[in-house]
Design goal:
Elements: H1 38-52, E1 86-94, H2 99-116, E2 149-154, E3 194-200, H3 203-216, E4 221-232, H4 261-267, E5 283-292, H5 294-297, H6 302-309, H7 338-342, E6 353-354, E7 357-363, E8 369-379, H8 386-396, E9 403-413, H9 426-429
Antiparallel strand pairs: 1-3, 1-4, 2-3, 4-7, 5-8, 5-9, 6-8, 7-8
Length: 430
């Protein structure tokens, strides 16, 4: 729930190639005649499938329902890509102590991701050996790719001494986040050695993807925590309607656009001189589970709600302005207004790309909804992105009376997988 700089209209492709063609992906059921081919043959087939979709930009229009987002590219898909409607995010603990096993897992995960993002199963579903479990669990059979993107990140624990020989390769910007005022973090919903962000327009496609990766990793990794999300709370496509959060306000009005190459290079992608060569072209991800006190908020007057945010609830216009995208006049807002405190001008220019989702996980046992915002922010450097913004918000944002951060994690997000011979994290383990 922060303000970012204005969006520009310069063409940018997350995959770094030509725009995707308009055709829909073949259904998973359509390729089951290849049963018995296994992961290796399927990976080769996925390359052909990706070519059919253009093999390039993942800035696919939201109207292209069921389309596939190209997996290969300079940057990982799922960051600057057009934001999908659903999320399944999972953080994993690495259980193996063997570096070779971890590398093998990352290669297997990459091969599976290559298939699933093309709308294909990861192997046999019902034509394998009857005595063995199916290679793919099958709940996504017949479903389209639904713009599935899979984005991986590496947590600080992966670089710990005496684990995998990576202690000298930990980026300086991969900091352990401080405990901010008001945080009430649950260790069971925080941290992780690895993360995978699965975004899709069909929730079953996203859940299937995480399930397959967890199944492939059995014995080598284990899910530490996960989060389902719906109703994107920010957008990388400013020409579309700005989504609303669970408090009913438009969220992410001034988020970085996925077509703004200059802003992405300045604020999101790790540069060649940033200190960790293996991470060049990657980014840093901060994930925060933010619980909203929905019942208290719902009893708050409209005027107070608008004062808290610094925008009107209907149009989303900043105080004293008439349109949502009008340049805000910060001094017209109350000093403790959320928009004023989160704005780059209040934080030395700190700017992040937001990709959050709403969540509701039942009730807390006291009749209150366990609901809120699963905040996802990508940036070039956590120390100059999320940290100064959150310090400012935690100190005096009046919105803190209605929210609480209950989960937290930070990850280094490697660059994209360039081709069929590349794999997630190859440069790190080289």
């Amino acid at each position: 729930m922060t303000e970012s700089q204005p969006a520009a209209e310069q063409p940018q492709q997350d995959g770094g190639a030509a725009p995707a063609a308009a055709g829909a992906a073949p259904s998973r059921r359509a390729v089951l005649g290849w049963g018995g081919a296994g992961l290796a043959l399927g990976a080769a087939a996925a390359g052909g499938a990706a070519a059919a979709f253009g093999g390039g930009s993942d800035m696919v229009s939201a109207s292209a329902a069921g389309a596939a987002v190209p997996f290969h590219g300079e940057h990982q898909a799922g960051i600057a890509s057009a934001v999908q409607d659903r999320l399944h995010f999972a953080a994993f603990d690495v259980k193996t102590k063997d570096r070779a096993q971890l590398v093998a897992l990352l290669k297997e995960w990459t091969a599976a991701a290559r298939l699933m993002t093309a709308g294909l199963p990861v192997g046999d579903v019902y034509e394998g050996l009857p005595e063995a479990p199916p290679t793919d669990t099958g709940e996504a059979l017949g479903l389209k790719a639904s713009r599935l993107t899979l984005t991986i990140g590496f947590g600080p624990g992966l670089f710990a001494k005496d684990r995998f020989g990576l202690e000298g390769r930990r980026p300086e910007a991969l900091v352990d986040l401080e405990l901010f005022p008001g945080d009430n973090l649950d260790p069971a919903r925080s941290g992780g050695d690895l993360c995978v962000q699965a975004c899709a327009d069909d929730p079953q496609v996203a859940v299937h993807a995480i399930r397959q990766l967890a199944r492939i990793g059995f014995g080598r990794v284990a899910v530490r925590w996960s989060q389902l999300g719906f109703g994107k709370t920010s957008s990388t496509t400013p020409d579309e309607q700005t989504p609303r959060n669970m408090m009913g306000f438009k969220d992410g009005t001034r988020n970085i656009s996925g077509t703004d190459r200059a802003a992405l290079d300045q604020h999101v992608w790790v540069g060649a001189g940033d200190g960790s060569d293996w991470l060049t072209g990657g980014s840093y991800l901060v994930a925060r589970r933010i619980r909203m006190n929905i019942e208290t908020w719902d009893r708050t007057s409209l005027q107070e709600q608008e004062d808290i945010f610094g925008r009107d609830k209907g149009e989303g216009a900043p105080v004293g302005k008439s349109r949502e995208r009008d340049e805000p006049f910060l001094k017209a807002m109350k000093p403790e207004a959320h928009v004023r405190l989160a704005h780059p001008d209040t934080n030395g220019g700190a700017t992040i790309l937001r990709r959050g989702y709403s969540f509701t996980d039942g009730t807390d046992g006291l009749g209150r909804l366990d609901a809120g915002l699963f905040f996802l922010a990508y940036q070039r450097d956590v120390r100059t992105g999320f940290v100064p913004i959150q310090r400012n918000l935690a100190k005096s944002d009046v919105l803190n009376e209605y929210i609480q951060h209950v989960g937290s994690a930070v990850f280094a997000v490697p660059p994209g997988v360039r081709d069929k011979d590349d794999w997630w994290g190859r440069a790190l383990f080289a």
